[in-house]
Amino acid sequence: MTEGIIGKKLGMTQVFRKDGKSEAVTAVEAGPCTVIQVKTADKEGYNAAQLGFGEVKRPKSSRRGRTKEKEPVKFRHLREFRIDDIEAIETGQTVDASLFKAGDIVDVTGISKGKGFAGTVKRHHFAGGPKTHGQSDRHRAPGSIGATTTPGRVFKGMRMSGHMGSQQVTVSNLEIYEADPARNLLLIKGAVPGTRNSLLLIRKSRRGKK
Prior knowledge:
Distance between the termini: 25 Å
Helix content: under 10%
Radius of gyration: 23 Å
């Protein structure tokens, strides 16, 4: 079986534990996913399973040929997950929320929320300039970005203002609070990247919880 699944972020809510304390959780629609293709080390150079998630009514002909029957793929999203044992999985198999159980530690990958053009202080959490000694217009300024004659330019990668967010982010060591295969629902403790209805990749953490 694969070590991950494709899901869709539904939003955040809170649940109450037996001791009465509340717990912030993220609701994720996890699967069901269908194994479209199994890649082997002999043919593709690595072992992986390609999963399909979210059906479309009119599949494009450009995706034709990914299955043995050479039919168009009827899934909106296709993602790969590395696997160790290719004998335990086959094309057409279904992967759902039963892959996880309460207490499992997972890594969640998604596209973070886009914030548009942001200043240096907001984008990189700079402290800003001094608030006293006549510095009336330097509160949100980045400060010096380089020397003059040497090197005479601004180095690549200098943290400055620019587009913030809308990047692939992975949050590690999150705990599964509850898994409901009947409703294809996962409740994950804490926040995960992305906006509502955004795509998520949920993998079993190999590092484990610290």
